[in-house]
Amino acid sequence: MRLPVELRHVAPRLATGAFILNSGLSKRGADEQTAAMMHGMAKNTYPFLGRMQPTAFLRLLSAGEITLGAALLLPVVPTAVAGIGLTAFSAALVGLYLRTPGMREEGSLRPTQEGTALAKDTWMLGIGVGFVVDGATRRAC
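^ thats the sequence. predicted structure below, dont judge the formating
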């Protein structure tokens, strides 16, 4: 049986999968203050999230990160499928970076010191888009 993962995808899948899985696991036991802080930042960028309770938001975020991290780490999940999830997730994080005041230098895409933690998520967006494009072009051939 051939796995739906190309050898060239293993390293970026392991790196992003482990990173995201760890992030999701670390949020599982977060307190209400942490939930409120994370929810507040997210709802300022994505107002529809304001209808959720902070603890419910954090539980869903944690579950989503655990699921995505596992999908990237498990070689039975096709890279293109995992790439779609990674692209969507990282695009939302890049949206936080671009829309949150104080994350970028005035009139620039360059991050401030505070914005570096979110700006780094652009590498995940690049990997996710690469996985999706690779999957689409391999099917077209």
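Residues 16 and 71 are 10 Å apart (CA to CA).
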